[in-house]
């Protein structure tokens, strides 16, 4: 960490001593940083006066930085990172080391135009026609609602205008990138009824090629068409209604992973070094025969009421959203010979093996090797290969929800300012994961396919969740003096959760040899939970509740310096893993259940449900402006202690693959962060940020060997440094150039970070074939983005490049300890193109 911190600090110091700094000081009345207005406390305030660590990104920055999705601005915020890999909506945001866990509830509130989104995929939507983005750090549940454990992200879109305006724009870039957008806004009834509609469409072939099919548009491709509209009705001078609706349709690649082993004993046994490979050195080969497809359609609608009463403002909204999503991709069953004897696997190995197609499989048995028919149960298959031997996986994640939020906001100029509100949400979520045989006959995209179908289902997890959320919240702010304020906020949440199993009580197809009864050879139930529940799997229900207090002290030490301190509690509800999870893992990995786990004895403690997560956070910070408001410098120090941190774990074995949520009993994350903006001259602005974190797993009964390790996805160092140059070049034209350098330090993705634990291979080859993840952290990396353009009064054209140094780095590492390796996803490479827009 010291090696990275020193150059960042030197860069900051050099920036503040740029030639021209003295000129700026001498000419103090000509230049200053514009005031930024934020709504972090449910009312409009100066960013520098709000006692919360906030990064605000305004409209100019959104345009000039080319921000189109969440990943484009996350790198501009210290101590915030993002993983975007398996599918378009499957993003994991880490704010100060607290991760929005895959398959669990989010850890941050995502609020669009004052409305909390409950759609799990909405965070990674296209960002167009946006006015401002605010990233709030630390627990925000007291005001922003459920799951705001780590913070909140507020997106404000542009309002309808009282004068007609319109805009069109587009992008042409490499790897088949095309984008188009249009916006129309204006009065329907002057001063009374105003409307706005914005449309965006984009597509890209992606950076990677399927070398088996020789297609360059089937791996990380993306097609997105979205439309959003707003209608604002000024009913009276004191009452307005704001209607907002949207629809998006997304088609994209999915599950684009390769794999690497982490078993040192295999290196010695087979003389092949890649059985214990550094994950950062994997040579990616996309060779799947089953198309990786992610299809999403989202519809949302919200209406917001603002009513100025005599004693307070009433703000209320009703929101509805509907998400339908499916994923199809290759499976992993070939690794354990599940479909080895099927006719399609035998035929495929005749044409595709390590001797006939080394271009696909690489050097034989280092680590993977595919043998032709006649050498059954002897190959070493990689996942997602061109053979039908690995089966397939099909997933659906559908959600329909409605929420109501209503609050009274007291007058802003009173000595005691207050907010009081209530919240309700009803969420129906369907989640299914199916695994089955790929017989080379195509795929029925449905939860269950019977044994006579083209792709029979052999293992199925299918649950329907219903959640009702009830909450009350409020905040009081007191003026202790002319310069000092004390605020208390409190929220109480109660979540009533139910889950019903929808898996049919049938047997599997019998095609997967690993899913047959060891004694009789007969097919087993399609879900392991039927073994203990032969007459049907019962429904499950649990309630979770929590008080979430927050206290904040704020002191205007001078006209230019504000100091603050806060204490707060965050909460996210517990939940349910897919029914059958516990039974399946016990059989394969734990002793005492009569399966291969007798030899493996991994001593896992995974259950079909998991507890709520509670975090306690302390923060002190300051916000300051210097040199007649030419230099803005904000900084904070924090510590967060978390109980029962919800952590995603991935299991692979002879049964296929399984997604679960486990809990880490106790951990802490502490750190510091700072950001600055410096108006160096009339034309040049320099900005940057630095985040440093220290973390530790203090207690983890599920994996006790991990105690003392770093918290996953909490890198020690993050930072950014950039500059924007804007000056006239004739007439009303401006030459605008912006460069952004972003750095993310080494990152672990699992609690195990070198401690050896048993793998399923011990059941096949005897003891000693344990995993060692000491080579499984993602290396530190940095990227550089550059944009250069001309802007007129109503037009702009910009040439741009992202990751212009073509840095190759991993997007995600998913370690699977009981398998003895990791699933790996690469990141985007260099992209470039031209943007244009015209307003009229």
TrEMBL record:
Domain TonB-dependent receptor-like beta-barrel: start-end pairs: 242-804
Location(s), subcellular: Cell outer membrane
Pfam families: Plug, TonB_dep_Rec_b-barrel
Membrane topology, record value: Multi-pass membrane protein
PROSITE patterns, per database record: TONB_DEPENDENT_REC_3
Domain TonB-dependent receptor plug: 47-152
Sequence similarity: Belongs to the TonB-dependent receptor family.
Protein name: Outer membrane receptor protein, mostly Fe transport
Taxon lineage: Bacteria, Pseudomonadati, Pseudomonadota, Gammaproteobacteria, Cellvibrionales
């Amino acid at each position: 960490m010291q090696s990275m911190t020193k150059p960042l600090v030197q860069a900051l110091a050099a920036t503040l001593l740029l030639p021209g700094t003295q000129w700026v000081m001498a000419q103090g009345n000509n230049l200053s940083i514009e005031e930024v207005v934020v709504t972090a406390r449910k009312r409009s305030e100066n960013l520098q006066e709000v006692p919360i660590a906030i990064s605000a990104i305004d409209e100019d920055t959104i345009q000039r930085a080319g921000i189109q999705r969440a990943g484009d601005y996350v790198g501009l915020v210290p101590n915030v990172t993002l993983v975007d890999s398996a599918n378009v909506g499957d993003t994991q945001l880490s704010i100060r080391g607290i991760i929005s866990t895959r398959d669990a509830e989010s850890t941050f509130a995502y609020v669009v135009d004052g409305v909390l989104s409950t759609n799990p995929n909405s965070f990674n939507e296209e960002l167009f026609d946006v006015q401002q983005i605010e990233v709030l750090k630390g627990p925000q549940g007291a005001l922003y609602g459920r799951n705001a454990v780590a913070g909140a992200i507020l997106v404000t879109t542009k309002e309808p205008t009282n004068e007609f305006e319109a805009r069109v724009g587009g992008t042409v870039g490499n790897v088949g990138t095309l984008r188009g957008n249009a916006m129309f806004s204006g009065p329907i009834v002057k001063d009374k009824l105003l409307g706005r509609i914005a449309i965006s469409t984009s597509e890209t072939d992606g950076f990677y090629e399927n070398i088996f099919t020789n297609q360059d548009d089937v791996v990380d491709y993306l097609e997105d068409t979205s439309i959003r509209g707003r209608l604002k009705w000024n009913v009276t001078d004191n009452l307005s209604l704001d209607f907002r609706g949207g629809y998006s349709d997304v088609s994209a690649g999915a599950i684009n992973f390769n794999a690497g082993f982490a078993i040192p004993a295999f290196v010695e046994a087979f003389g092949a070094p890649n059985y214990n490979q550094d994950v950062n050195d994997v040579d990616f080969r996309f060779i799947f025969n089953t198309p990786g497809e992610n299809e999403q359609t989202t519809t949302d609608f919200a209406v917001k009421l603002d009513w100025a009463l005599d004693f307070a403002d009433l703000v209320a909204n009703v929101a509805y959203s509907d998400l339908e999503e499916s994923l199809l991709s290759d499976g992993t069953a070939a690794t354990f010979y599940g479909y080895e004897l099927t006719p399609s696997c035998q035929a495929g190995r005749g044409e595709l093996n390590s001797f006939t197609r080394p271009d696909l499989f690489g050097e034989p048995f280092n680590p993977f090797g595919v043998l032709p028919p006649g050498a059954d149960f002897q190959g070493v298959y990689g996942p997602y290969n061109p053979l039908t031997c690995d089966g397939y996986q099909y997933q659906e994640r559908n959600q329909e929800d409605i929420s109501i939020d209503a609050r009274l906001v007291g007058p802003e100029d009173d000595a005691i300012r207050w907010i009081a509100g209530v919240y309700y949400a009803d969420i129906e979520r369907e989640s299914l994961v199916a695994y089955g045989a790929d017989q080379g006959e195509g795929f029925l995209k449905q939860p269950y396919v019977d044994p006579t179908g083209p792709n029979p289902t052999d293992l199925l997890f299918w649950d329907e969740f219903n959640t009702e959320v009830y909450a009350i919240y409020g905040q009081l702010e007191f003026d202790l003096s002319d310069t000092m304020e004390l605020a208390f906020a409190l929220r109480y949440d109660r979540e009533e959760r139910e889950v019903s199993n929808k898996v049919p009580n049938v047997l599997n197809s019998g095609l997967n040899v690993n899913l047959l009864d060891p004694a009789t050879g007969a097919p087993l139930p399609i879900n392991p939970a039927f073994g203990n529940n032969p007459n049907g799997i019962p429904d499950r229900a649990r309630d979770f509740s929590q008080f979430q207090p927050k206290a904040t002290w704020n002191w205007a030490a001078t006209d230019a310096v504000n100091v603050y301190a806060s204490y707060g509690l965050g909460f996210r509800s517990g939940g349910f893993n897919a029914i059958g999870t516990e039974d399946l893992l016990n059989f394969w990995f734990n002793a005492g259940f009569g399966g291969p786990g007798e030899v493996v004895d991994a001593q896992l403690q995974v259950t079909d449900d998991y507890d709520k997560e509670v975090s306690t956070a302390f923060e002190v910070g300051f916000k300051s402006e210097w040199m007649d408001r030419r230099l803005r410098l904000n900084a904070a120090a924090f510590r967060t202690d978390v109980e029962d941190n919800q952590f995603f774990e991935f299991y692979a074995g002879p049964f296929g693959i399984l997604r679960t949520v486990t809990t880490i009993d106790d951990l802490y994350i502490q750190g510091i962060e700072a950001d600055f903006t410096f108006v160096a001259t009339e034309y040049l602005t320099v900005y940057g940020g630095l985040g440093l974190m220290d973390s530790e797993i203090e207690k983890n009964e599920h994996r006790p060997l991990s105690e003392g390790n770093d918290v996953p996805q909490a890198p020690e160092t993050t930072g950014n440094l950039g500059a924007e140059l804007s000056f006239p070049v004739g007439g009303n034209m401006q030459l605008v150039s912006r460069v952004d350098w972003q750095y993310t330090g080494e990152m672990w993705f699992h609690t195990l970070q070198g401690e050896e634990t048993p793998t399923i291979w011990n059941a096949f080859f005897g003891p000693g074939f344990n995993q060692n993840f000491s080579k499984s952290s993602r290396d530190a990396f940095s990227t550089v983005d550059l944009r250069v353009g001309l802007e007129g009064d109503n037009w702009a054209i910009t040439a741009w490049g992202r990751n212009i140094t073509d840095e190759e780095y991993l997007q995600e590492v998913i370690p699977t300890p009981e398998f003895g390796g990791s699933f790996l996803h690469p990141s985007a490479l260099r992209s470039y193109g031209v943007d244009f827009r015209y307003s009229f």
